[in-house]
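Q: What does the assembled structure look like for these inputs?
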Amino acid sequence: MQSEKSLRNTCFREEDKQPSESSWKKFENVFNYELLPYETTTQGSKKTSQFLLEVVDILLDYIKKNNDRSYKVLDFHHPHSLRNALGPCLNLDDDPKDLEQILIDCKETLKFCVKTGHPRFFNQLSTGLDLIALAGEWLTAAANTNMFTYEIAPVFTLMEDIVLAKMRDIIGWPDNNCDGVFAPGGAISNLYAVLAARYRICPEIKEHGMEVSPKLVMFTSEYSHFSIKRSAAILGIGTNNCIGIKTDSKGKMMVKDLEKQIEKTLASGAIPFFVSATGGTTVLGSFDPIWEISDIAIKYGLWLHVDCAWGGGALLSKSHRKLLNGIDRADSVTWNPHKLMGATLQCSAVLMKEKGILEKCNSLRAKYLFQQDKHYDITYDKGDKAIQCGRHNDIFKLWLMWRAKGDSGLESQIDKLMDLSLYLQKKLRDKEGFQFVINEPEFLNVCFWYVPKNVRYIEKGCRRDALLDKVAPKIKSMMMETGTTMVGYQPLGDLPNFFRMIVSNPATIPDDIDFLLEEIERLGEDL
Amino acid sequence: MQSEKSLRNTCFREEDKQPSESSWKKFENVFNYELLPYETTTQGSKKTSQFLLEVVDILLDYIKKNNDRSYKVLDFHHPHSLRNALGPCLNLDDDPKDLEQILIDCKETLKFCVKTGHPRFFNQLSTGLDLIALAGEWLTAAANTNMFTYEIAPVFTLMEDIVLAKMRDIIGWPDNNCDGVFAPGGAISNLYAVLAARYRICPEIKEHGMEVSPKLVMFTSEYSHFSIKRSAAILGIGTNNCIGIKTDSKGKMMVKDLEKQIEKTLASGAIPFFVSATGGTTVLGSFDPIWEISDIAIKYGLWLHVDCAWGGGALLSKSHRKLLNGIDRADSVTWNPHKLMGATLQCSAVLMKEKGILEKCNSLRAKYLFQQDKHYDITYDKGDKAIQCGRHNDIFKLWLMWRAKGDSGLESQIDKLMDLSLYLQKKLRDKEGFQFVINEPEFLNVCFWYVPKNVRYIEKGCRRDALLDKVAPKIKSMMMETGTTMVGYQPLGDLPNFFRMIVSNPATIPDDIDFLLEEIERLGEDL
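A:
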């Protein structure tokens, strides 16, 4: 970790610029208005290519370092010291910077990035950097269009239809006469699902508001993603009317408690309308028993949503799709290809069994965007079913990556990750000082405590828990400061802080897992 | 326009591949798993660079064509014929495609893209392709991180703080102790604003739902963006409780009508809580009188939102910021740098005067993401104030573009566009057969009818309107089929369809405007 002073002296420097790349010199005192689209001469066009190729060169260098285990995962600095050091260099001024400075800016920015594609980055559900998806993202940026109409996004609109249909086929809805849309992340996808369910139970809310609605109550496991609860807050249902259902020792929703809560709700005079089953919870990676939950949903007429933002990719594996058994009985599904499938961020789909429900629920028919007298078939204009107006093209990178891997490539990627998870579990079992939070995890989340020697022989109880609670944060802190690897931790209910290891990076090999465990031991041994 | 058959034969073809680029041949039978991160040998690393450079080559070619007036803006095909022709070629199969096919896929996709950066693309509010923003977007994709915590997005978090503070300074809020977040588009930004306003008037809704709320009513001009109304639908307020305020002959909100509607609401026993003033309406480009509206908002205790998603950029111009006079009296502002400022899609900010309101309104304190015992200052973790969980990095491209242009560069870009708008207006005035929808438009939307000779001398009235209503769609249809230029049209209230010309592309020069008008005359003359 550099000192604040040395940070200030080396970063984003404008005086005494000495870029390592001598080829950047030719951009000294060259400004953006000398490039396309301002300067359309051959000269302008040539400079544009040269400039973009220099940027690509910087990015290729970063990509290589991302994949080189001799480079650190991150170069950590505390927020205030990074802010004090870089703040003045990051300023936006009245005058333009020349393109040499812009190249320096790119290079310096990457220096302080966390290498989320590094084989030893295990910190989030989304890890890795797929290079076909990256290429797709670069093209998306150059095409710079908007998904609201076929008019300005013809091929991408078709691709979205094709990919959504493919995803629904994989879910297994009997005839594919269904609906769906790509949304900016799983939280918004979940919001779409609750919104559609609310529309089905009481379509009048759209015009008249919740005042014409009976009191609505929704259900989700206590370990589900917080965006389900947040949807209740946003939609005016209220977080108190989003009931957290108890989970069993594996972190799965207890169907008996679900039914009990539904009965309790009915007895209170309120209307149960929605239940979300999670396919891969954020912390434990648990899969709720979808089939049994769907029986209850049918019995009481609830909308069944499956939030498999995280676990959806498992559907692509013949060996592992059983985790989501019953998903074809769902009314809606959230599935994020930017997680398990490895697409770059953002890429999230929400799929609906009922065709047309999104349009009915969300459309407002703005005449200036969705003209009814266009010369082409306007059923291809998808914008009015989205809650966004402008909508980023999240489809091309996914489509391209899927082309390059095929179903078979994605399947073997997922199977390989599942094998790695078993490898990690075996290692943990064989090593002293490690303890599972859940024995035999069924997915890619492997949650465990590292118990330092000084704590190892203390009797189970409050004192031990209090000590243990401090271990993971302490190790994580040292890990970040050395920058060698990154893994998440958190408490859960009454459980003290534990590590949550996520095996979702296709770049990872068994050696990297060994490295992580050894690093935890090395840093934590004497705590 | 090619026939369906010839389309099918030439596009995305896998048999008899004859890519024009012989350098692609080396990717025949080379698959994604031979690249990084799977193949970390020198060979794998080299192939990765080669592959990405081929992609960049395709993109550079596209960028050049984007800026070359001898290329068409689009190659139009009807949805069903594009679908029939390309559908089978776009399929996702079990087997992977080789990287040669992936390069063909990229090239073919671009062939059917609408060139939104072309100097003769005038169809949307967002036009143009800024190459610094593009470079920023490429870096963003390579960095592939998520904005929820400082932990994994340290520099980008600082950049977001810096840019938001800069934007608030420009708005003119007296001390910059305020709030804000980047959101996926203006519609979601507007949703944030209504949500925060609802929280301020009745914070209990978050937990208890709308049933504990008095009846809430909100106001916006009849010409405002439909996302304000949609927010009412989503939040459970109801579209009927979003009152459209009348506009004057310039399309500006009539403050008298606003006050009348507020009084009417109060008389009915409901609570007026929110008013949105539009800074640049979508169709006419009108600016509501913010200052006068803010007087009313203060008088009645309403939250004042300014939706200047479109017009916000005008704040950067000393000559034109008066359009938004009074904006510093707003409680919240939506401002999309992906529109007037020219950043690539998506880039939208929502800014709030009250510090901490977003956090209070939206946070749910998920312990697994926002651990309270981290070793760094967690006030830098911004995720819990967003309604998304994962959040795309929309800041870097904007920051980089702003660096490269400086305030002065952005100002002159906006001034230049305003001059071009005046140029267009003068041309329209001087030409026969063109008629303004609003005389002397004050912004970059220039709305006009082209009146063909056969209609020109018909008396004003229903018959003329009915004929005129068909002219713009017909011309637009021919324009798209020839592909030479693109401009939008729509009706408005009782007005028959008219063209809405948007001057927002920094690539445009007066010649392009002449070209558009001549093209309209050429295509429409004999209608």
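Chain B is about 40% helix and 10% strand.
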